[in-house]
Specification:
With 763 residues, the chain is an alpha/beta fold. The chain has 23 helices and 27 strands. Helix content is 43%, strand content 20%. Its main location: membrane.
């Protein structure tokens, strides 16, 4: 190589070294610096005197030692160490005074000498330090996290990682669990296999899992899992959230709910028993006063008739209070049904006027009705509307003396813009303050204690009225000033709608009344459109004209307007079940004669006993209706005995008087056991009148025994009770009695007409 070529090569090498990102220096066999770049000089802060071949590597080391870089270490010892390092490749880190961290690499070269490379690794070292800090923080978080965590190797199903929380949840040190098969985490391997199966599923849906603790207890957790790669292998990461507090709270809520339901059942049982205990003496009061009143009228003793009528009125008033309490209980329990029908207001107002007229006269009040002749009608529950108006008008009459009570009716608009009817009940009575009006609609509450003392009452009327207004889709409001009277306002929509009615997709269209005179109509009552289709196809071929109702409410509305010849009635329906509809039908004279065919999926031959009726009559006993029943079941059979089963001697006496007056003999039994003994010792009676609540053996137990014996399979049994029946009790009676009279507590005078109608149809 010529000198020029050598110079050219050296220039190229110098340019290459200067473009490198590291500091580079080359030493010859005598350890003299022969080549270097500027970064080398900058990194080592190399004095210019040591650049070149005049000084050796040893000279530079002694210079550093003299500068104090080796501390208390002898310079010659430090030099010997560094010269020994030059014999083999060597790498180390060096921190400059300014904090820069250099990685130094010295490698020997063939022929002697060595090359040194200095790389700035400050950023990398800082990143590593940050990573170590983050890892330490993550380890601290992992150890202290309130959520248990485990990573399971998918292939080997062993624990690859487990945090402190999981260790605490199962009562073991987390470090001891790593490397264990998952099924060995718990004392019971079956629980481990169960968890293993959960984590092996591909789904990540959360599910509850009770983690067994080492002390034998269990911890309720919510576990979820996901697939991931862990150190290059497929794994599953699972988290366990302790939900023990939530589970305990849910259990407490369930217990509280059960306690509330139990309390509600106790309340319902109390009300049922209370109604029995109160209605039983009322049976004697009303029944005997009625008998005595008839005797006094026959004897021409008008003064006695007047006194006895007062006794009857007091008894019926007390009966009304009992019914109010029971109505409120039904409303609160959500068991109060609504029956919608078209109500003609002028006719309804006349009926209300007849009822409240005597109340107005008692305090010398004038009763004014402001109702336009063309007021028209609205679709609502007429019974609840009448009851609401009677409640308001009776209150107005009670709290007004020698004043005026006005009932004003007008067309109006609801807040949503729909058409409404407005009922205003105004009086010129004592009025109320703002504070008194604030307590007005609370149950068992009147304006204040002095109101109760001075005017009496239970405080239930307005509460029930408010509930009725809401059930009918309306509102009730009050305006009043002390000494200036009060105005109660009820607003009801012209078209009330029942909550939960069937949608358009379940529409069952009723074609209306038949136009062909003499056509036999069958009303099909069922919530299943398929049943309507099948019966239409089946009965239509036989020449019957079918009408349709999708629930009991609609069926009753149709029957009351245009009674059909036959009714097919489903048992299981929304709003009102079939037994309830049948009970209502048989309690209404206009509907009682209609034959009913029950449709049910229950295969029970005892249901045959109830196909004619499913209703019962509450005490006080309606004597005329009872007479008609006797004629119905024993027509022209003067030898047929009527067995009266009741623990109340006064009830038995009243019924004996009534039945013997109808020309039939009577036998008595004080409880179910006595009745069974009588039945076994005598021919079959024409009729059994059965009380439900009796000592030793009640009416339900008696029915169970009777229906278990084939000899009494056709025995007619009519239930007479003062008890409010539950759904289960009513269904039991429907299956085991031939006729159960409706719980109406109707005035005694209406009974004869009702049963006379049934008898006249040969039913």
């Amino acid at each position: 190589m010529t000198e020029d070529e050598w110079v050219s090569e050296a220039t190229l090498l110098r340019a290459t070294l200067e473009n490198m990102a590291q500091g580079v220096a080359m030493y010859d066999a005598k350890h003299r610096l022969v080549t270097w770049n500027q970064l080398f000089v900058d990194y080592l802060n190399m004095p210019e005197e040591f650049l070149g071949t005049e000084h050796t590597f040893s000279d530079y080391i002694r210079y550093l030692g003299a500068r104090g870089e080796f501390g208390d270490v002898d310079i010659e010892v430090a030099l010997a160490q560094r010269l020994a390092q030059l014999e083999t490749p060597h790498r180390f880190e060096r921190t400059r005074p300014d904090g820069t961290i250099l990685e130094v690499r010295r490698d020997p070269v063939p022929g002697g000498g060595f090359i040194a490379i200095y790389t700035d690794i400050t950023e990398r070292k800082l990143a590593e330090m940050k990573l170590r800090e983050d890892e330490e923080q993550l380890r601290a978080i992992d150890a202290a996290a309130p959520i248990g965590l485990v990573i399971m190797d998918v292939a080997e199903r062993v624990v690859r990682h487990c945090n402190g929380c999981l260790g605490r949840l199962i009562g073991r040190e987390a470090e001891t669990l790593v490397g264990l098969p998952l099924r060995e985490l718990f004392a019971d391997p079956a629980r481990g296999r169960e968890l293993e199966d959960i984590l092996a599923t591909p789904t990540s849906e959360r599910q509850e899992f009770n983690l067994p603790h080492a002390d034998g207890s269990t911890i309720s957790t919510m576990v979820s899992h996901e697939r991931l790669d862990f150190r290059g292998k497929p794994a599953v990461i699972a988290t366990f959230v302790d939900i023990s507090d939530r589970v305990r709270m849910e259990q407490q809520l369930r217990e509280a709910k059960e306690a509330a339901e139990s309390a509600s059942q106790v309340k319902s049982a109390f009300l049922a028993n209370m109604s029995h205990e109160l209605r039983t003496p009322l049976n004697a009061i009303i029944g005997y006063s009625e008998i005595l009143s008839e005797d006094a009228a026959d004897a021409g003793d008008s003064a006695m008739v007047a006194d006895l009528d007062k006794i009857q009125a007091a008894g019926k008033h007390l009966l009304g209070l009992i019914n109010d309490i029971l109505d409120l209980s039904k409303i609160e329990a959500g068991r109060m049904d609504v029956y919608l029908e078209q109500v003609f207001l002028t006719r309804m107002v006349e009926e209300v006027k007849t009822i409240v007229g005597p109340m107005m006269q008692k305090n010398g009040n004038s009763f004014v009705i402001d109702c336009p002749v063309d007021i028209g009608s609205l679709r609502t529950d007429v019974t609840k509307l009448k009851q609401s108006l009677i409640n308001l008008l009776s209150n107005a009459a009670k709290f007004t003396k020698e004043g005026t009570v006005t009932l004003a009716i007008a067309r109006d608009r609801m807040p949503d813009g729909s058409e409404a009817v407005r009922f205003d009940v105004r009086d010129s009575g004592i009025g109320m303050s703002e504070e008194q009006m604030g307590r007005l609609f609370q149950a068992f509450t009147q304006a204040d204690s002095s109101t109760t003392r001075n005017f009496g009452g239970t405080g239930l009327g307005l509460t029930i009225t408010k509930h009725f207004a809401a059930m009918l889709g309306g509102t009730i409001a009050v305006a009043s000033e002390p000494g200036k009277g009060s105005t109660f306002t009820i607003e009801l929509p012209v078209e009330a709608h029942l909550v939960g009615a069937l949608g358009d997709e379940d529409e069952i269209v009723d074609p209306g009344a038949p136009t062909t005179p003499g056509a036999i109509t069958v009303l099909v009552v069922d919530d299943d459109p398929a049943v309507h289709d099948v019966l239409t196809a089946t009965l239509g071929k036989e020449g019957y004209v079918l009408r349709h109702a999708r629930d009991g409410v609609e069926a009753l509305n149709i029957m009351r307007k245009e009674p059909p010849d036959i009714v097919t009635l489903d048992v299981m329906m929304p709003k009102i079940d079939g037994w309830s509809v049948l009970g209502i039908m048989k309690s209404e004279p206009a509907l009682a004669h209609i034959p009913v065919i029950m449709l049910t999926i229950v295969d029970d031959r005892n249901l045959g006993y109830s196909l004619g009726a499913s209703e019962y009559m509450t005490k006080p006993i309606d004597r005329q209706r009872l007479v008609a029943l006797v004629h119905k079941f024993a027509p022209g059979n003067e030898d047929g005995v009527v067995l009266v089963v009741d623990d109340d001697a006064e009830v038995r006496a009243i019924m004996r008087t009534t039945i013997e007056g109808a020309g039939l003999p009577v036998a008595e039994a004080a409880n179910g056991e006595e009745a069974l003994e009588w039945l076994r010792a005598h021919p079959l009676p024409a009729l059994v009148l059965l009380d439900l609540m009796m000592p030793r053996m009640d009416g339900f137990a008696f029915l169970t025994h009777v229906r278990a014996e084939p000899a009494y399979g056709e025995l007619p049994i009519v239930v007479l009770t003062a008890k409010e029946l539950t759904e289960d009790e009513r269904e039991f009676l429907a299956r085991n009695t031939l006729l159960i009279l409706n719980k109406g507590a109707q005035p005694i005078g209406s009974l004869g007409a009702a049963l006379g109608t049934i008898a006249s149809h040969g039913h």
